[in-house]
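ok so i was messing around last nite and threw this chain in just to see what happens. nothing serious, just curious
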Amino acid sequence: MWKLIFRNLLSRRRRLAWLLCEIVIVSIVIWVFVDPIVVNGYIDTLPLGYDRDRLCMIQTARNYDEERSDTASVSADMRNLLIRICNLPEVESATIVDWSYPDAIGSSSIGVHKDSVWLSVQLMPMLSGWNYFTTYGIHAVPGNNDAGELQDMTPKQGDIIVTRTLAELLFPGVNATGHYIGEDSEDFEVEDAYRIAGVIEDVRPQSVTAESLLAFKAYEFNPDLCYNIVVRLKDGVSMPRFIHDFKESISEGIQSGDYSCKDIVAYDKLSEEYAYGRGVTNELRLKIILSVFFFANLLLGVAGVFYLQTRKRSEEAGVMRSFGATPWHIRLMLLGEGWVLSTIGCLIGCLIYLQYAVKEGLARANGNVGYDAYDLSWVSNLPVHFILVSLVVYLLMVIIVSIGISIPAWRISRVSPVEALRHE
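result:
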């Protein structure tokens, strides 16, 4: 069978040369659009480090009453409001956040030096004593203080809580708790350094990137900041139903002193808004739309060409039938020719794209450029990344070619030898 396939391809090599060039170009075009889609699909499969499905956020408003503007009064008003919400039968726990939290638009960062590379680590505030880790479902690394102890730690200047990935990156093979960031540098000074007070499991600060370089810094309640309430619902509670009922309660008025509730939104919605605000959603939608558009055109173009090429071989199929070839044998031969041609063309196209990939790089999963050198995932490994996406491109190309060949191959393989020869 395969000898016959290669013999047919060699005998028709001049007529198939332009078709091979078309497959090469198509492979390169598919690579451009498929690469970011595959990487984003991989990012979506990674754990966030916290249970987002049962979280929602209550947006609060302040009256700014001058008689209750001191820290103790404002803190008591917020805590009473939080207790009132926690007493709802659907609520498991709740905490408060300010302007920075997982998937928040606002963020701050610190620079960390690693092997002559400066890495950007996101620094996220955590209000001490307000059940932050418990509500988010963030867990401590075994061998350290548990999450409950870490979230109640007394805020100290320079103390931070880091993720497992950051701890292992800075202090591989040892317990990072108690160590100072940058303590191995020549100009190290304890007064200006961050001390690791605890290590938690990996948390992705943004759901649109794969990296977990994150540190939490505890602080006391600040009456000058605007706070929102993050709520964790009990297992089995319907999120849409709870939001609907809570909005009705808001219309009736939910207030505690200086604070009142003004709106509620599911945490998934916040993540979608973040991705949209960063332009990730629009970029991905554009890639998908263009991919569907080009895929449809390629399907019609490449498959159409193979369709016409295959239909012209009715006489050859008739001769093969007269010598005892079965319809299945003929269809397999025609498909085999298309698969061989697709393999050669796709291989050439991917190798051409590799020249661009080596120079400009492939789609990235991390927002931190310097971290790519330490990322152990396949996305930051150029050979593995290239091979995996090339396989996806090859699979799509084989599907396109198979569709173009299968329909006419099925028809001509079932035509009787007499009718095929008479038609030609």
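not much to say yet. The first strand starts at residue 55 and ends at 62.
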